[in-house]
Write a structure and sequence with these properties.
With 218 residues, the chain is α/β, with parallel strands linked by helices. It has helices at residues 30-42, 58-66, 86-93, 106-118, 154-164, 179-187, and strands at 10-17, 20-27, 76-79, 97-102, 123-126, 139-145, 165-175, 193-200, 210-217. Strands 5-4-3-6-7-9-8 form a seven-stranded mixed sheet, sandwiched between helices. Strands 1-2 form a two-stranded antiparallel sheet. Helix 4 links the parallel strand 4 and strand 5 (123-126). Helix 2 packs parallel to helix 3. The radius of gyration is 17 Å and the shape is globular. One of its GO terms (biological process) is methylation. It holds the Pfam family Methyltransf_16. Keywords: Methyltransferase, S-adenosyl-L-methionine, Transferase.
């Protein structure tokens, strides 16, 4: 679509968000984008980041569903590693004031398109875990879907939460019960955080529920 700020093919994807089907801007060929990134890395190109954000992961749907249990109306919410923005948009639709962030600009352009189509407003900006700060008041809720898939991300995630999470707030993370998610659960045991875990079942694959990891300062 030539009228967009994106340098890759994209389309509108009907997605169940906050209980209704809504259109999200999504990359049309995420597998091809990943293969291209791997090729460029193999050729020695610097600064190439794997575009895992290009896919709407099931973990975002699980986090969306879990938000029915969270008091969001009138609350400020920060989403980290937002990708297509599914979880953050779900929070906005439940009455939250949201800041949606990712470590690179491309997914944020998708998010801006989706927000415009849905008639929603949010602060959308680059935030690299452990490096950048929003510069505003801390958030009562931080959201992250599929942001624990790399061990290298864990210290930055907690560093960002240390700065951005308000006292008494909670960070809600989701993953499809990957083995590395189990490792994250063990890794965080000796950190100053309380960890609680719940499961959310989705209709598309009830035999593989999504794990919700709820973290609060210890």
């Amino acid at each position: 679509m030539s009228d967009s700020p994106l340098n890759f093919a994209w389309h509108w994807e009907d997605t169940l968000i906050a209980g209704k089907m809504r259109s999200l801007a999504a990359a049309s060929d995420p597998d091809g984008m990943l293969l291209d990134a791997c090729r460029r890395q193999d050729e020695g190109e610097e600064g190439v980041i794997d575009p895992f954000w290009a896919t709407t992961w099931r973990a975002a749907s699980g986090l969306d569903r879990y938000l029915d249990r969270v008091e969001l109306f009138g609350n400020r919410v920060l989403e980290v590693g937002c990708g297509t923005g599914h979880a953050g948009i779900a929070a906005i639709l439940r009455g939250a004031e949201a800041t949606l962030t990712d470590g690179v600009e491309d997914p944020l352009n998708l998010v801006r398109l989706s927000l415009s189509r849905l008639g929603l407003k949010a602060d959308v900006r680059v935030l690299r875990l452990g490096e950048d700060k929003t510069g505003g008041e801390p958030f009562p809720v931080i959201l992250g879907s599929d942001v624990t898939y790399l061990r290298e991300l864990w210290p930055g995630l907690l560093a960002t939460a240390d700065v951005e999470l308000a006292e008494g707030g909670q960070m809600l993370l989701s993953d499809p019960q990957r083995v590395i998610g189990n490792e994250f659960r063990e890794w965080i045991k000796d950190k100053p955080w309380e960890y609680h875990e719940e499961l959310v079942t989705l209709e598309d694959d009830p035999e593989h529920p999504i794990r919700i990891m709820r973290l609060m300062r210890g």
